[in-house]
Specification:
This protein is an alpha+beta fold. 47% of the residues lie in helices and 11% in strands. Helix 12 packs antiparallel against helix 13. The N and C termini lie far apart (57 Å).
């Protein structure tokens, strides 16, 4: 295990916890306040180092460099040889919990290329088209339930209700078995929080149960193939490549964890944005065909569901005026890059008419760009259309309650009502 070289004492920024991008307290602040901190960091002549005790007994000067500018983040993601994903991209600690090992997110070449190549050949536009009716049906069911329920917690009853069913339907998990998959995904994200109180044994037992479910499904699909992703991943493709049972299980957990949380956060934040700016909501409703796709992109840019991602330096590399050395650790602050004023005009304004630009909401350019981006876009646009065509008066009634869950800047609760 390489320990980061200790930067000069003058480089170590002793910031209060609510301005330290490595602390949950920072991510629980209102977005406007976080944006002010990021704007100051982007304006710094050099990168800023944040101390973080990655393990008991390590010196206080061990920690992470915060990369906050759009172009710097993009350069890092384009250079995986110098900026590694191993041992992990979504934990500050070194020790990986059960289920973390083998995730495609945490692998470098050649293992990452092999897994992504197999998955990408199965994760096709055709596969997404087969899901269109499922996605519409789920969105209509969730909207109908909301209309019947009335005032409720939007984050729980609406935003979190759609993504698990979509992903499980795509994979081919029967409805009767989906609850355990969602539970494990939620526990897995919770385990990335250093203050998590979930016993490791509890998570391990649930994970084992879920992975056994996936293994049983793979065995079944080998004899009874279906038009689903488990079949496509478990059967050899034209080049004779396929995923092993454990690789399918790992990919499924990655897909559920990433897909549920990111879409959930996008939909929750959408309600906040359209409540705060009803003119934008009415613009969307006036021409869904024109504005749905741009609205989905602007929502993801504006809220950055994946707030940050980690990289680990393996080669000397100069970024701007700063030179990284092997053993350094960095945090790519997507939430900052998506508000970079040198790239986005009026970046703090929510504007669904914003000209198209490749934001960082699905990662930066390079081999780890999100494979599920098109699926997420389809879910977000479908749900927005159902909500605002059927229930145009839906709105948040209180400010959201925010929390940090690993790399996700999460809305935990969002009371809503329907006029």
């Amino acid at each position: 295990m390489n320990r980061s070289p200790h930067p000069a004492h003058a480089d170590i920024r002793r910031m209060p916890d609510d301005e330290n991008v490595l602390t949950p307290a920072f991510w629980e602040r209102p977005p406007a306040e976080r944006d002010q901190v990021f704007a100051r960091l982007r304006a710094e002549a050099d990168l800023v180092f944040f101390p973080y005790a990655v393990a008991p007994g390590w010196p206080a000067s061990t920690g992470y460099w915060a990369v906050t500018r759009y172009e710097d983040i993009a350069e890092v993601t384009r250079n995986p040889d110098a900026f590694s994903s191993e041992p992990t991209v979504y934990r500050l600690e070194e020790a990986a919990p059960p289920g973390d090992q083998g995730s495609m997110l945490n692998l470098d070449d050649p293992r990452h290329t092999r897994l992504r190549r197999i998955v990408a050949r199965s994760f096709t536009p055709r596969m997404l088209r087969t899901l269109e009716q499922d996605i519409r049906d789920i969105a209509r069911r969730v909207t109908a339930d909301l209309a019947e329920r009335g005032a409720c917690d939007f984050a729980t009853h609406v935003a979190a209700a759609m993504p698990p069913d979509v992903i499980c339907a795509m994979m081919g998990v029967p409805p009767s078995d989906r609850a355990i998959a969602v539970e494990v995904a939620e526990l897995g994200m919770a385990m990335t929080d250093p203050n998590c109180t979930v016993p490791l044994d509890t998570f391990s037992a649930k994970l084992t149960e879920c992975l056994q479910l996936i293994e049983d499904l793979v065995h079944h699909r080998r004899d009874h193939p279906a038009d689903d992703l488990i079949t496509a991943l478990g059967l050899a493709n034209s080049d004779g490549e396929y995923l092993t049972h454990s690789e399918i299980g790992s990919f499924f957990m990655t897909l559920v964890s990433a897909g549920v949380e990111t879409v959930r956060e996008s939909l929750s934040n959408a309600l906040v944005f359209f409540t705060e700016d009803p003119d934008q909501r009415e613009l969307l409703r006036a021409d869904f065909e024109r504005w749905l796709a741009p609205a989905a992109e602007e929502i993801v840019r504006h809220c950055s569901p994946v707030a940050w991602i980690r990289r680990n330096v393996t080669q000397e590399h100069t970024l701007g005026s700063h030179t990284f050395h092997p053993g350094d650790r960095i945090i790519l602050c997507y939430a900052s890059g998506n508000k970079d004023e040198t790239v986005f005009e009026n970046p703090h304004r929510f504007d669904i008419t914003r000209p198209p630009h490749p934001h960082l909401g699905y990662g930066g350019p390079g081999p780890h760009y999100c494979l599920g981006a098109q699926l997420a876009r389809r879910e977000i646009t479908t749900m927005l259309h159902e909500l605002y065509s059927s229930l145009p008066g839906i709105h948040a009634t209180e400010p959201p309650v925010r929390r940090q869950v690993g790399i996700i800047s999460s809305i935990a609760h969002l009371p809503c009502a329907i006029d």
